[in-house]
Amino acid sequence: MAGKPLRVLACGDVEGKFDMLFNRVQAVQKKSGEFDLLLCVGNFFGSTSETEWEEYRTCAKKAPIPTYVLGANNPETVHYFPDVNGCELAENITYLGRKGIFSGTSGLQIAYLSGTESLSEPAPAYSFSSKDVSELKISLLSTPKFKGVDILLTSPWSRGVGNFGNKPGEMDTKRCGSVLISNLATSLKPRYHFAALEKTYYERLPYRNHVVLQENAQHVSRFIALANVGNTSKKKYLYAFSILPMRSMDPAELVKQPQDVTENPYQKSGKEAHKPKMLSDQPTGPCWFCLSSPEVEKHLVVSIGTHCYLALAKGGLSDDHVLILPVGHYQSVVELSSEAMEEIDKYKSSLKKFFRSKGKRYVLFERNYRSQHLQLQVIPVPLSCCATEDIKESFILQAQEQEIELLEIPEHSDIKQIAQPGTPYFYVELDTGEKLFHRIKKKFPLQFGREVLASEAILNVPGRADWQQCTASRDEAEAAAKAFREDFQPFDFSEL
Question: How far apart are CA 136 and CA 139, in angstroms?
Fold first, then answer.
């Protein structure tokens, strides 16, 4: 049964003008009735905050409603936020923290990210990094049946938010804002996204979170940037709205599309959003690997990019056997978009550096046969175990024994030049870039790739050739994924 909608106020940069803000809130409540909470994005403190803030800090004055704020955006105001995990700053005023999820008793889910984008690691106390964004995305996307969040709070705008929509005055959204936040918004699908810092008000037309005629309808997102409190241009800095938590809504009501809905601004182009099969196939049944699918074992996910993600293999040949998988539904590499292929190459490069730092080289293989979702199996092999030529020879010899024609692909060629979409095949790729290819015409041993790598000549773990014999408890799998994620983080390019 649906509950009562919450009445929420959102505010832009306060910049230390606490009395002006809270007097305005009281006036709004006197005219329109009580609100449940106030959310502040941008710079809550300013260069002249001390005297006015002291009255609130000592409880001489009090915020009229529960107020939640983001952290510092500059080094001058860091000292106002003593705990990176969030804390009460004054009565009725709470700092949410560096990043995380706030869920009230109503079920309203608010994701937040404090600070401005940092280009370095570790990020300073007033900034966020790609690691922060990745951790926030994983914490949400790994939850069962994740559909999106009710509200996203960031201080900077998301880069490109004006694409396909109404223009925000003189602001150039292709230049201002954060790419990391664009990627975050793409993954979290907030129903409302509030930002500030640009001293202007901009309410973008609502945008879709699905591809029309190719994906099931999803709720729309609304981006609202707010001006600074008390600005002389009288631009809007306080925004009032009512919201029923997503989890309390009727699904059909949640996905209703308003007449002024636009394409998603973070897509490359409107035409690409409507490409047919080449962009994403439809699974014939439940898919264990589509990231949005309830069947996906999200506790194994270790990194999420824009088009692809990385997960530990269930029943892997080793503890660091991983899969590179597309977020959407693709059957094989030859059907991937150029953007997805580019991201796969980035994952390959990152994994190569990561495994080499551990004294290992990787072997990658794909079996496009009796599988409906692309899985690139990436298995590390200790450098001390065998040379690249030995691995290649093992594949060729075992293929000959089973009358499998395994051919070496010429240098500078790739699978897309050899196989058409829908063609069954098996291919192996070494981290030197060398590739072996077999076009499947009739039958093919499903465990061939694992059998070669598990053999005495390479990993010498023949008992692990069949993944179903390599069981682990969920707790063990979660622990392994957490360990891999932390270990891989310095090499992880993803901004998610």
Answer: 5
